[in-house]
Amino acid sequence: MSQNTFGRLFRVTTWGESHGAMIGCVVDGCPPLIPITEAEIQHFLDKRKPGTSRFTTQRREPDEVKIMSGVFPNDAGVQVTTGAPISLIIENKDQRSKDYGAIADSFRPGHADFTYQSKYGIRDYRGGGRSSARETAMRVAAGAVARKVVPQISIRGALVQVGPHRIDRTRWDWDEVGNNPFFCPDAEAAQQWADYLDGVRKAGSSTGAVIEIEASGVPAGLGEPLFSRLDQDIASAMMSIPAVKGVEIGAGFAAAALSGEDNADEIRIEDGKPSFLSNNAGGVLGGISTGQTVVARFAVKPTSSILTPRRTIDKHGRETEIVTKGRHDPCVGIRAVPVGEAMMALVLADHSLRRRGQIG
Amino acid sequence: MSQNTFGRLFRVTTWGESHGAMIGCVVDGCPPLIPITEAEIQHFLDKRKPGTSRFTTQRREPDEVKIMSGVFPNDAGVQVTTGAPISLIIENKDQRSKDYGAIADSFRPGHADFTYQSKYGIRDYRGGGRSSARETAMRVAAGAVARKVVPQISIRGALVQVGPHRIDRTRWDWDEVGNNPFFCPDAEAAQQWADYLDGVRKAGSSTGAVIEIEASGVPAGLGEPLFSRLDQDIASAMMSIPAVKGVEIGAGFAAAALSGEDNADEIRIEDGKPSFLSNNAGGVLGGISTGQTVVARFAVKPTSSILTPRRTIDKHGRETEIVTKGRHDPCVGIRAVPVGEAMMALVLADHSLRRRGQIG
Amino acid sequence: MSQNTFGRLFRVTTWGESHGAMIGCVVDGCPPLIPITEAEIQHFLDKRKPGTSRFTTQRREPDEVKIMSGVFPNDAGVQVTTGAPISLIIENKDQRSKDYGAIADSFRPGHADFTYQSKYGIRDYRGGGRSSARETAMRVAAGAVARKVVPQISIRGALVQVGPHRIDRTRWDWDEVGNNPFFCPDAEAAQQWADYLDGVRKAGSSTGAVIEIEASGVPAGLGEPLFSRLDQDIASAMMSIPAVKGVEIGAGFAAAALSGEDNADEIRIEDGKPSFLSNNAGGVLGGISTGQTVVARFAVKPTSSILTPRRTIDKHGRETEIVTKGRHDPCVGIRAVPVGEAMMALVLADHSLRRRGQIG
Amino acid sequence: MSQNTFGRLFRVTTWGESHGAMIGCVVDGCPPLIPITEAEIQHFLDKRKPGTSRFTTQRREPDEVKIMSGVFPNDAGVQVTTGAPISLIIENKDQRSKDYGAIADSFRPGHADFTYQSKYGIRDYRGGGRSSARETAMRVAAGAVARKVVPQISIRGALVQVGPHRIDRTRWDWDEVGNNPFFCPDAEAAQQWADYLDGVRKAGSSTGAVIEIEASGVPAGLGEPLFSRLDQDIASAMMSIPAVKGVEIGAGFAAAALSGEDNADEIRIEDGKPSFLSNNAGGVLGGISTGQTVVARFAVKPTSSILTPRRTIDKHGRETEIVTKGRHDPCVGIRAVPVGEAMMALVLADHSLRRRGQIG
Hints:
The first copy, chain A, contains eight helices and 18 strands. Chain A is α+β, with helices and mostly antiparallel strands. In chain A, helix 1 (38-48) packs across helix 4 (136-149), helix 1 packs across helix 8 and helix 6 (230-239) packs antiparallel against helix 8.
């Protein structure tokens, strides 16, 4: 877990800038003999791809992934992992040449411009450079590999709040998630959000969102008890996604208002196996998975690129104003759903490998 | 960040069980020549110490820390760090001998009993063993050392919600924090909480809480931009505290409902230096500190040890009921305040050292 | 692998100074349910203990180890590991009070005095402080735990050279190793060394040595192929022992003079299993164990504490002379044998756990 | 230090196979604002490039490196590092299509074939796949970046032994190193080696070698005292190079035969600075640099690819014979010189960054 690498035994190192020739990642620690194709990875990239509806950026990126190493045909001719590092690359296609004048010198409020300049004394300002959400494409690609490491685990995500508008959880229907451009499990809310976001988009404004990710089929016993707890690593993973400002597990912040009686999940035996009567724990107790569904939520702030002029300073320390033109997501939270799924997959693949190294 | 070690350059490894002879930690990576005494560490331990009011566990632990290594008198005779690992120990004094019958075999709902047994096939059930919140004493001790590594940074915490009762932020007064047994910055709320918690305690129940930690004097440029972001590592740190279920930075979950205009903190020049007009970012942009006050909040679930019988199973897979007698905190969130401060100190000390290794 | 921690999944963090109250270590990542007693650890400590013959330092240290955490009786009442960190301590008993005048200010040639002062600006000069070989007692203790993690692997070591005097490998007899104070497998050489070392000792001089460690029962497949190779990690482990200046695997430096025909170990099938016709590889090919005996050798320089006055400087930058009085080993290489065995055990335990996390 | 990543603060992750489309590496942790061009990296790659004389493999690889990320023009228009990960790639050009029949199934003695198959159950056998020395091209590329991080340190290497033939150290002349195809500092020895290697090559045989690397300008204080010692990390680095079987620092194995008087380097003051009268320590005491020249040597075994038929087994467990045809180095030790230099640069860049994080 450092700089551009995520994970401990199953590790991903991402590289590349928004407007460079390509972006990429190296997936290291992947077990051998796992069948994997570019198409399988592409499937998840297509969910995150820009330009799939009017509610996301209109940048046109096919986001075609290529596997450059780490795979080889097995005796049956099926391409499988070899245990060597898997290098994935995506060429950048739609880096429009344009004048970066204002952005090159001034710091867009809410963006990483000021902090990158403070830390490094230089920044690739083209499209946000390294701090662009474009980097998350490689997380999704790596997450697709991670899913294959833990095939018994099923991971899915949904948008549960856009701006001030939450879904009605009693209407939750996973099948609806693919029926609207928001990954929304509540058909009615999706309708409402479409209207709301059209208004936001036309106003050149933006809005935040809350995403919920769940993983079922997680065996009991994943996670380390003190540091590198499963919930800790999930929180770390979600918080590493650009624009995320909060994360919670199970009942989350609502647990603060509960009594001990209401919060602690009672246990029974069902079909000969331990069964919990509720899941306020979100599938994690003492940092270790219980075998229940793991549930995490995270909040994404509104896109900082907006058409309203904002007060800021430039790199020479002069006060100025800035408007961020360009092709931006009115709600980056939407495309954060497949990214959140990918991060969950990375954490669970990593802890599954760690778990193997922990058994006596 | 692994198992029992937290941090990368400034690292803490904790060890010990609730009812063993002693608990301890090793602080590694501490720079040399920093004056440090047992009394300075004790000061913070005393804030976390059990039994200081009727609202915390009545276990009587003096929690006296001893420095076993890593310090030596400098030429002026002042005890300073030498760069060698600092070993700290605390002897356990009040491990009452008692019959652990029920707890030894049955899993207390909400506790780590079930998951430890699932993961390890054995657990030290005496007082929760390794999963006891007693371990956090060593975090507080290590945090006291961390504070000395970043003397220009000031870290303080407060309880902002107990059960459903939040403070009124307009009444926030840091000076009040030391005037009540709750680290509450709102004198009126503290009054209300005392009544509320007396009821909870007498009912043998428990309740959750929300803690807010802020760090001022943090220079711009701390944190790594993709992974090991400052906010990510703070989230990871807070989520590693037992019973924490959610964490947020700056505006946190509320950011989801904001517009881009309202959320992004505008920048001006004041006294020749960059100055932000608001702090929704909580002092972090793009994973890197802005120079503003760093603000984090985390939610603690209600203590799972309660007097009401709860349904559960034992380690033989039989259904049973359990009542957790003993000397428990009705609201563990209270004593989590100094722990949260310590975790913030550990993250900032670590990132301060990392920062030095990043400059060109 | 950092500062005071060795290993990746099976990790040891050592702490303490030569003349402090105690030294200790924390063993983290040890799988649960492994029976372990203080007596089992003590067995290996007794091999390294000072004062067992006239050829080692006359400091009187019982080196009694105590287990402070991480163990608990299983259902059968046998003390086993719990998966929690194992804290081991040894109290220092024979730190003679004495005047450290000269050593406190002047840098003993060949010792770490000059470099500690350069790096840290301070040093605990009492008996070498943190740089004392006393630290290796904790490696031996941790190594004893590591051996229990890989019970199918047998590790043993021998001294094969003292000063310019090598053993005759045709006389190698493992049973002789316990029959002389040198861990020497060649009875005749042991005789010769005794005379030689008596001369060295009486002259107040010292001499170097070469140690050979072998591990049998190592399964094929341990080690990572590029970095963290098995031979790389063994080299790293041995080189981390104070005073070691060289390390080699299998044929080692002699391999440079061989032809490809003579060096590459041919393979046959014996009893249905792969069998190598020679072992120039020392049990490692491409960084991964072959299943053959793993063989490593390392060279220890002569003790730098000698009675002959040596030219040096003091911490004020003044030229001076120094004589290192005290109770020193004329050949520290002797007591390095159990230390080398312990380091081999630590590497193999770590890689055995890593191996589990690598299988598809 | 794990699997395919080397280093702690300055980290390199290599990827790619001998006969894939490309090989590459990601350099992470490089400080910003360092001017770097492809030509500067190419300079070192050209020293390692195959086919530069009849004494190395005749594979024709231009080994042209491209920088894919992590650089940007500064205000003066000079391309500098940005602090973002630096992705370097080299396309493979001369992967001759051929029949891999025998190699695909049988294990070449001395190669990693058997161990890769044991560990992973599959291997990319084309040209050795991941275990090919081709991977070291990326180490050389990364090492070129590392050199720019520590511009005050000068690193150079030489071949000091080929087969049984050593140089005469009294004839050592660094200027000769570029005058012969062996990086040999002794013109006479180079002559002798040419004849010797012609014989080896014509016989379809191979031979080993010893390489010496020195680094001058290393400040005192680099290295950590217990684990991650400077000499330990150098040993680890050199041992991670394919085919290396031994490594030593300073006097190395010869130190075993020395007396304490002869071995310990005395210290004087010269020009107001500490000055050592000898350098048996090889620039490292107690794991920390002394400020003297750091000196390391490592032994490379003979190339395992030879024309003489060797006994081996195939992956079905059948006994067979194998001849390794193809374009091989009769002495891989020659091209190991720039690789050893690169590994030294990686270690010193890493420790220089670590050093900054250690100062009080």
